[in-house]
Amino acid sequence: MVADGRQMINTAVAITETGEIGLARGTDFTLPRPRGDAVSRFGIGTSLLQMPAAWLAPKVETVRGPGSSQFLFLLVPLLGVLVTAWAAARVVLLLGAPAAAAAPAVLLASIASPLGSYAAMEFSEPVQAAALGLAFAAALASARTEGRATTRFAVAAGVAAGFAVLTKSSLVIAAPWTLLPLL
C-alpha cells in the first residue's frame, strides 16, 4: 500500500471504529492536532466510501484469516473506474453522438486511459473522476430534460460536484466547469 491510500483507508477504519477521524501521530503526511493525534491531509470523500469495507474487514478476517479482507478496499477504486466509464458513455450519448460512440467512450475513460491502472490501487483518483463524470453527465441530463427530472438531475450534478471537492479540495477549481450545462 502507498502512504496516500493507506491514510485514506486508516481514516475510514478510524471513523468506523471510533467515530473520529484521528490517526496516530507520525503517520505519513498527517497533520498533528493539539489533542495528541493527527488527521489526514487528504480529502475525506474516499474515506467515507471505504467505510463499508472498514466495517466488513474484521468480520471477513475472523472467518478467512489475517489480511484476507484487503480486496474489500479495492472495490471503491474499481467501482470508481466503472462509474467513470459509464458517465463517459452517458455524456457522449447526451451530446448527441450515435450509440456506437458509447463503446469507445467507455474504453477511453477506463482501460485505454491512465485511470484504468488505478482500478487496482487504493488511491482516490477513480473516485474523483467518477464524481466529476457524474456531475457533468447529470448537468447535461438536466439541460436536456423537462419538468421535475430537470431539478433532480441538477441536484445530482451539484451533489456529485460537491463530493468531488470533498474527495480532493483542489477540485474546487475543476468542479464548477462540470456544472456549466446547467447555465
Give me a quick take on this structure:
This protein has 7 helices and 2 strands; from the N terminus they run H-E-E-H-H-H-H-H-H. It has helices at residues 3-18, 45-64, 75-94, 102-109, 125-144, 148-167, 175-178, and strands spanning 30-32, 38-40.
General description of the model:
With 183 residues, the chain is mostly helical. It is built from seven helices and two strands, in the order H-E-E-H-H-H-H-H-H. The protein has helices at residues 3-18, 45-64, 75-94, 102-109, 125-144, 148-167, 175-178; strands at residues 30-32, 38-40. It has a two-stranded antiparallel ribbon with strand order 1-2. Helix 5 runs antiparallel to helix 6 (148-167). The mean pLDDT is 92.
Features:
59% helix; 7 helices; 183 residues; two-stranded antiparallel sheet; mainly alpha
Q: What is the general shape?
A: globular
Rg:
18 Å
SSE string? HEEHHHHHH
Strand order of the largest sheet: 1-2
Work out the helix count.
Answer: 7
Give the averaged pLDDT, no decimals.
92
Largest sheet: 2 strands, antiparallel
Q: Give helix % range.
A: 55-70%
Give the CA-CA distance, first to last residue: 42 Å
Secondary-structure-derived class: mainly alpha
| Low-pLDDT runs | none
Query: How many strands in all?
Result: 2
Strand content: under 5%
Strand and helix map with partners:
Layout lengths: L2 H16 L11 E3 L5 E3 L4 H20 L10 H20 L7 H8 L15 H20 L3 H20 L7 H4 L5
Antiparallel strand pairs: 1-2
